[in-house]
Each structure stands twice: as structure tokens, then as C-alpha cells.
């Protein structure tokens, strides 16, 4: 391959050990005092980070800590404002992603960059010169893919179309792309966020194999148990700085959480005893169509009782979004029934559901939860502005709005300069607290809650979880849709697993384990 | 440092419309040169024509009045996330409605007839804006297309009425057949404030309404909903607000203000329905509102600025013998510069974010 031989020529003056892919190893990569500024944000503040051949170095930090920014500078997407990057002891500069790939660095981003209408082989070969000049050499590409796939245990078929692949498979294609292009160092930005527990296990096998072969690996996550499981060393980032770098062996979850958040964190909640009351949300044989006209929700039946948190687990795209949209009146129900607090609301408009005592926390926080340009207090009255105390006759009552806003901001510990600040200036966690404050303040009988802590930092997540448990004690019936198994296990009383639009099984909390849920999430009936 | 930069950025942003005007005038100067006219003489005449005397300045305010009224409607519509291009047609039907009522009830006293005629104009415009509103709410028909089509229908309706049922009987007697209505009864006229200038009560009404629209949009339940629907229809829907209803309402209100502009032109200036009563205000009003950053109070100075351009244009035309439509070109250039520099500023901001 022309590309590979160029790379070899580049390194031929050095005596390098070759990887099984035929590429020279990167013995060491060091990022020294890396500083990166965005308007009004210091994203990386004199960050030091290094990784060696054969090592898996984890980068741990809350959302917004600056992990992705650091990696994007290694990948040539951003240029550092200060500091240096050294490869095998020599300073280098990456002017573009192509530059960085040329030097043997591979990136798996949070969002995949594949063409769905092309095959795996075509995606891998895309942008690379062919060995036959103008003629395609896809057969050779396929052969090489199969060889690499076997070597690293990456289960993929070169001839499959990308649109047919699951998210986990697409991720393997991205890894294949990087390996094919000669990556000696591979950085994976939150690769497990989209995977089932079993897929995570498979990925970890691949990563361990790569490390054993002499690849240098950077693994980014904010999930503590994964870091402990896979990495040799861990670097913790907080507020754009590195707060610690140490071997992973001997570290505990509690210690890592403390380093990441900067204070003690509760990983286990105290739950009041489970005392379910009357059925508040009753879903019967619900069928909802998806955007492509398929049955996205397929004969789903369940009952959520007073004082109960009913969890719905599943890999995203298995009908959870459509279920939540149907329950909030955004998507029509095909057949079946929805009854809220004794009132049939199958085809009701959002306003009727709110009037019936249902609150909802939308998955798409910025799109459906808030009006970005509105102030915090304007967002706090999005549903209830039409009646007392927020308005009198036709006029909004600004005194009452200010008073209530202040109370809710204090009570929910929303960090904001003022109630008049546009909500888009707040962090994700604080925006979510505003939504929670608004929805809980209505004293709901039923709470539909989708991905409440996705993209929210640990401190705020912890607080949101406590509030959900408080609602449980107060008798609210909560339907908690989440992709985060830790969250579901920590909060739910019963857990249903959705796969392909159907409910695979409903399990009591004390019988639910990560393994069992994981199998069900992958569609395997236990 | 960043503080300074922020202040510079903010003042830069507020100055941007002014810069847009200046750049448009500079380009206009080259066009004047190309037409063989001296730009300094031309612009001198323009300023003189708009502000040179009490009479000319009052004339500027008279022209600013319909611009402001139409602009207020545009503010409401755009804030509600709907685009109203139908100002022209709404002005026409507003003028027709006011004229018809005033002519039909000539014996009513002014305290009744004037408000009735104004209300007739408002309702006519509201219906003209409401038809696209309902079509959008019920069938999802694009309001840009329908409001434009409603302009054509209004124009034909006016052609028919002013040449047929509503034509001034004197025109028929004199066999001149000018397409205009009879003069409306004097008690229905909007009071002249500073005779002999043409300044009339409608100007004050427009300013009061600008304050009213401000209160409406930012202090009332309905105004809040219109803004929520305009900024984020998904979130508004999720919160239980009936999005199509409020979009339709925004179009109805937009039409009502343009209809009022038509009524005010008839009752305050021409005192009869004329063929060209809309005079391009339906479009210039959009420019006015955009220039005022879609804020009802910002629309007040914007309307004076564009009013002065319209009045000054006549004088400029006479001074250097160029078509007055050059002013329309200048207005267009101002819009292009104001809107595109706005986009440019935002692009620059987001670009700086990614490249540092
Ligand atoms: N392109 C960008 N423009 C402006 N700010 C950014 C950009 N990318 C990241 N940031 C900011 O930099 C900080 C670090 O973000 P990021 O590196 O994405 O964090 P992480 O990956 O650890 O969650 C955040 O405050 C984020 O808002
Ligand atoms: Mg990130």
C-alpha cells in the first residue's frame, strides 16, 4: 500500500520495532503543558499526558473536563495554544487530521464518521489510494480486513453495508479503519457510551489484544468500573486540569470518584422500603410507529404504581424514544391504551396530560425541554404560565415569577448568575436541574423521565437521583427510561428491558444483575 | 482584556445596522456615478428633502407611520416564527375596509365613525393574514407562498372595486374614470396635528401601539406563547402549547397591523381609497422591522430612517434626475448588508470557537 510504504520510509532512519500490522510502533507519546482556549473557556490548562507502547492509559473526567479537547489536539483537529506534543521523544506538530494519521495516530470519535450506503470495505478504503491506480482494489482491501479482523478478534464482514450494522459493529469498523491506516496509537473517546455490557466486554478483549501487540491505547470514559477493568494507568482531569496520574491497580471507585469530582461522592443511595400503591400509569398493548414506518413500539404493556420507579433498560434505538414520545403526546398511538391516574389519555394532547398530573423530562433536553434563548425564569414557567401565581388575567405576574424562580433555583441548587440569565449559558447539569425543578414543582402523579443524567456531571446526577428517590417516597409513579444500567439499578424497583420494540422481560430489582440485563438488551431471552 | 473585547463586540453589534446603511449608501454612490449624477449633490438633496424643513421632516414622519405599523405586525409574526410577506395585500384590504365603512355610514358622528373605520381596516387585514394562518395551521401550507398570493388577490380585488362598485361617482360623471373611491366624510379623518403639514393623529397612534406591542409580547400570556412557539416549537409543543394556533394568531395579528396601516393612510393622508395606497410599505415595513432587530421599540427609529429615505428620494430625483426607485434598491442593499453582516458576525463567533 502506497500510504504505508511512505510511512515506513519516514521512519526508516530509526530502527523501529514493527507492529503485526507492519507499522512501526510508537514507543512513547507525550503531551506537555498543553493549553487550549475557546472564547470564554479554558478547556485545557497546562495538561500533561503520556502513553507508551503496550499500555492502556485511561483518561477520566466529568463532562466538560476537557478530555475530548485534549484528544482532538492529538488528532490534528485543533491546534494547541501552548505546549508541545512529542512522539518517541521528538516534538511534532499536527496541522490536520491527515497529518496525525500519517504519524500513526488513530482516533475513534464519539460520533462515527462512516458512510451508511457503502460497505465496510468501501468505508475502510475511502480516501486511500488504490494499489491498482485508478482501478479499485476492494478485493485486496477485503482480504486485508479479514486478516486484521482475525488477528484482533474484530468481528466484521467486509461486504456488509454499514447501514445494516449495529452501533457496536460500526464502532468495530471505525477501529478497523484506524488499524488499516496503520494506527500505532489508538485514542477512543467514550467508546462504551453506546454499547451493551456484552459489547463492552468484546471491545475490551480487542483493546487488550492490541495492547499486547504493542499498540499504545488511550481510553476515555467517565465510568469508573470500566476504567478499573481495562486500564494500566489512569489520568484524572477536572476543570480542564490534570488532578492525578497513577497506576490503576490499587485504585478504588470511591477514590477515583473523589478525584474526578473533587469531593466525596455517594455511589449507593438509601432507599425507603418499596411500598407500591395504586396503578397510576397503565400501558396496554401499545403499538407506536417509528419514523421509517416500522413498529417501533410493539405490543408493550406495563403498569407503574404509586411510589415506584419503573426502569426501562435497552440500547438506544430499541423503541424507548418512541415510547416516551407516545406517552407525552408527541407521537400518535397506533393501537393500545394509555391510562394515567384512571383517565384514558391514549390520544391526548400534551396539555391534557399535564392537566391530568403527568410531568415529563424529555430525552432531548435542549430541543424539547427548554427554549434556549429564554431566561431561567421564563423556562421555569413553560407549562404553568397560564395560571396562578404566574399570571393574572392576561398578564404575566413578574413578581410572583421572580419569587418562585428564586425559590426553585435555591431549592434545586441551580448554578446560575441570575434568574434572568438565558438558559443556554448554563451547563447541561444545571439546565437539567431547571427542568427537574419545573416538572417536580407541579407535584406530578406520574413522571415520565428519559435519560435524566445523560451528559450531566456526577455532582448534578447525584442530586437528580436523590430528587427522583424523594418523589418515589412522596408517592409519584415514575417511568425511568435510561441507557445507564448503574442508574437503573440504583433507582428502580422493577426493570423492563426493551429490545426491538418489545419488552423482553420485567425483572424485580433484587433479581436484576448487569449480566442478566445485558443479555436481554442484546435480545437474548434468558 | 476579555471584558474590553466583549464591550467592543457588543457595541460593534449594535452599530452594525448603521454600518449597513453607510455601506449601502456608498454602493448607491457608485450607482449614481454610473448614472452620471453627482452623489454628493444627490445625497445632499436626499437629506435636505427628508429633514431640511419642518414640513419635510413632518412628511418623513407621515411616511414613517405606515412603515411602523406594518413593521409592528412583522415583529409579531417573525417573533412567532412565521414569515408574513403579505403586508401589501393587507394594507390594500385595510384601506378598502375602512373606506367602505366610512362611506356607508356618512351620518355617524366622528367619535363613532373614525373608530369604526379603523376597526374595519384592522379586521380586513386580520382576515387577509388569517387565511394563510389557517391554511398553515390546518394543512401546513407554507405561509410565504400564501401571503404572496394573497397580495395578488387583494390587488385584483382593489382593481375591480375601484373601477366598479366603489368608484367615485364624480369620476364617472366627469368621464375621467380614475380608479379611486369617493372622499370619505370629513368627520372620519384622522386629525391633522400641525397644519399645514400633513402630520396626523395616526403617527401618535402608531407610537402608542409600538409600546403596546412591546407590552403584549413581553408581558402577556399570549405574547409569551408566541415567542416560545417562534423560538422553539418543539419545546412549546412539549409544554402543552398549541403551536399551530399561535402561529396562525401571529399571522392574524401581523395582518391586523398592516390592515390598520391601510386604514390610517386612507383616513389620515389621502382621505379616499387610491389605487396605489400600499405604496410598497408592505415590503419596506419588513425591512423596517428587521432593521429594528424585530423589537417594536427598535422599529420606531427604523421607521423614521426609512421614512426619510422615501421622502428624500423624491427630492433627490428632482435634483439629479435619477429614478426614485433607486431608493428601493438602496433599501434592498441595506437589508442585504444588515442581514448578511449579522450572519457574518455569528459565523465569526462560532469559527473562533473551533479554531481558537
Ligand atoms: N468547539 C468548542 N468551542 C467552544 N467551547 C468548547 C468547544 N469544545 C469544547 N468546548 C468547551 O471546552 C470544555 C471542555 O470540553 P470537552 O473537551 O468536550 O470536555 P469532555 O470531553 O471532557 O466532556 C467545555 O467547557 C466545553 O464547553
Ligand atoms: Mg467528550
Q: Would you give an account of this structure?
A:
The complex is a heterodimer of chains A (526) and B (356). In chain A, a hairpin with a 2-residue loop joins β1 (28-38) and β2 (41-52). Chain A is globular and about 75 Å long. Chain A starts with a helix and ends in a 5-residue tail after the last helix. In chain A, 33% of the residues lie in helices and 25% in strands. With 526 residues, chain A is of the alpha/beta class. By secondary structure, chain B is mainly α. Chain B has helices spanning 2-34, 39-51, 54-79, 87-104, 110-139, 143-163, 169-174, 201-219, 221-231, 233-238, 243-270, 281-291, 299-320, 325-355. Residues 352-356 of chain B have low confidence and may be disordered. Chain A binds chain B through residues 36-40, 78-79, 81, 328, 330, 349-351, 353-354, 360, 362, 364, 367-374, 378, 381-383, 385-386, 391, 394-396, 398, and chain B through 2, 219-222, 224-225, 227-228, 231-232, 234-242, 349, 352-356. The structure holds adenosine-5'-diphosphate (ADP) and magnesium ion (MG).
**Helix and strand succession of chain B?**
HHHHHHHHHHHHHH
Category from helices, strands and their pairing of chain A: alpha/beta
In CATH, the homologous superfamily of the largest domain in chain A goes by the name P-loop containing nucleotide triphosphate hydrolases
Structural class of chain B: mainly alpha
Rg of Cα set of chain A: 25 Å
| Helix coverage percent of chain A | 25-40%
Global geometry of chain A: globular
N- to C-terminal distance of chain B: 16 Å
Which CATH class of the largest domain in chain A is shown?
Answer: Alpha Beta
Q: Name the beta content range of chain B.
A: under 5%
The hetero compounds bound to this protein are: adenosine-5'-diphosphate, magnesium ion
Q: List unreliable stretches of 5+ residues of chain A.
A: 8-14
Beginning-to-end CA distance, first to last residue of chain A? 47 Å
Helicity level of chain B: over 70%
Beta-strand portion of chain A reads 25-35%
CATH topology value of the largest domain in chain A: Rossmann fold
Assembly level: heterodimer
**Biggest protein-protein interface?**
A-B, 37 and 26 residues
> How many strand segments of chain B?
0
Mean pLDDT of chain B: 89
Helix segment count of chain A?
18
